[in-house]
Specification:
By secondary structure, the protein is α/β, with parallel strands linked by helices. It has a single domain, classed as 3-Layer(aba) Sandwich (Rossmann fold). Helix content is 40%, strand content 18%. The protein is built from eleven helices and 14 strands. The strands form four sheets. A seven-stranded parallel β-sheet has the order 3-2-1-4-5-8-12, sandwiched between helices. The protein has a three-stranded mixed β-sheet with strand order 9-11-13. It has a two-stranded antiparallel ribbon with strand order 6-7. Helix 1 crosses helix 8, helix 7 crosses helix 11 and helix 9 crosses helix 11. The longest helix has 22 residues. The two termini are 37 Å apart. The model has no long low-confidence stretch (mean pLDDT 96). Bound molecules: nicotinamide-adenine-dinucleotide. Nicotinamide-adenine-dinucleotide binds next to helix 1, helix 2, helix 5, strand 5 and strand 9.
């Protein structure tokens, strides 16, 4: 039986991977210590998701491991010797990192190094997929020629119509401490690929979303926005007139790409992964879409101050992914994704 190790297995992307590979008959091992609850408080708790997975899938085993614990990570990989590793565990918030720089760097940069070195020592043939972020580009995308439209910002130059490519600079811009710790991890993942010939890839995510996100104000924008609408809670828009654009990809489509990569791995690849132009939306447009679905008005206020280093308009160019894996494409449009997140919050609210 093939073995998959997933870090951050109770989180949004991790849990979706666990489900898919359990259904495909792999033995799946998850590493998660519910650090999301430590980072974001009770609303970020992911234990419910861990328990859900343990109940449904007999071929899933949970390991209560902190990826910052080097010895434990080495021991776990020596024991399991997986055929593939999907590394999603992270301190994922751009904004939170400034108040917890050691936890952020220790988790994102050192935790990734611990996993890479454990892979090299104990299972160097394994494919290593790392969830990176578009924040590795810092705020450099804000320096592009941008035009203001009625409900959104957009790229002014034709060459950026399809979005940002992997060749975009990651240097000399403001990243946030989170973006910087993820750059360190991203470069290390590439280096373990090129230097040691390990099949690695970095997926530089735009907004990854889906029904299993424990969205909070500081991370998981769409999930949190929809929760606010459902609960009639006030949502704060930070700057850019609410016209800032994010491209959103459902975790289902993220996992479908990861499957393709694990089937036919390459060495030291980097891909921008997001919803692309078709699944891009501004905050103002997102308010309208959720109002259409729920029938409830969005309650919000506006703060003039944008988040430090926040993107004004970010769209991932998906052409490299599609060129390398032509049978992959986005299958969930924005409306479907909104609907699924909305229904998931409804169900969770009823249970609790
Ligand atoms: N969700 C997004 O919009 C988005 C966008 C770009 C990149 N990413 C990246 O994708 C990855 C997954 O994101 P997500 O949204 O699924 O995050 P998530 O917070 O839902 O899941 C991450 C999981 O990792 C666990 N974790 C955190 N620190 C840990 C540690 N030290 N040891 C063990 N487990 C730990 C958390 O408890 C959580 O369950 C992250 O690397 C994130 O930076 C996410």
């Amino acid at each position: 039986m093939k073995k998959l190790l997933v870090t951050g297995s109770s989180g949004l992307i991790g849990s979706e991977i666990v489900e898919r590979y359990c259904k495909s008959g792999w033995d799946v091992y998850g590493i998660d210590n519910n650090m999301r609850a430590d980072f974001f408080g009770p609303n970020g708790d992911t234990r419910w998701n861990q328990k859900r997975l343990e109940q449904i899938h007999k071929n899933f085993s949970h390991f209560e491991v902190d990826i910052r614990n080097r010895e434990k990570v080495l021991e776990t990989l020596r024991e399991i010797k997986p055929d593939a590793i999907v590394h999603t565990a992270a301190q994922p918030s751009h904004d939170l990192a400034a108040s917890r720089p050691f936890d952020d760097f220790d988790t994102n940069a050192n935790g990734t190094l611990n996993l890479l070195e454990a892979t090299r020592r104990h299972c160097p043939e394994a494919t290593f997929v790392h969830l990176s972020t578009n924040k590795v580009y810092g705020d450099a995308p804000n320096k592009l020629n941008l035009i203001e439209k009625e409900t959104r910002w957009d790229y002014g130059d034709e060459e950026y119509y399809d979005g940002i490519k992997e060749s975009f600079t990651i240097d000399q811009s403001k990243h946030s401490l989170f973006g910087a710790s993820k750059v360190a991890a991203d470069i290390m993942v590439q280096e373990y690929g090129r230097y040691f010939n390990i099949p690695t890839c970095c997926l530089r995510g735009g907004c990854l979303t889906g029904p299993n996100h424990s969205g909070v104000e500081l991370h998981g924008f769409l999930s949190y926005l929809i929760k606010c609408n459902l609960e009639g809670r006030k949502y704060t828009v930070f700057g850019y007139k609410g016209k800032q654009v994010r491209d959103n990809i459902h975790s289902y489509d993220v996992v479908s790409f990861i499957e393709r990569f694990i089937e036919k791995p390459r060495i030291a690849e980097v891909y921008n992964i997001g919803g692309g132009r078709d699944n891009s939306i501004s905050i103002l447009e997102a308010f309208q879409l959720i109002q259409d679905i729920s029938g409830k008005d969005m309650i919000y206020d506006y703060s003039d101050k944008n988040r430090e280093g926040d993107h004004i308009c970010y769209i991932s160019d998906l052409s490299k992914m599609k060129a390398h894996y032509p049978d992959w494409s986005i299958t969930k449009d924005l409306k479907t994704t909104f609907q699924e997140i909305y229904e998931s919050w409804l169900a969770r609210t009823k249970v609790s």
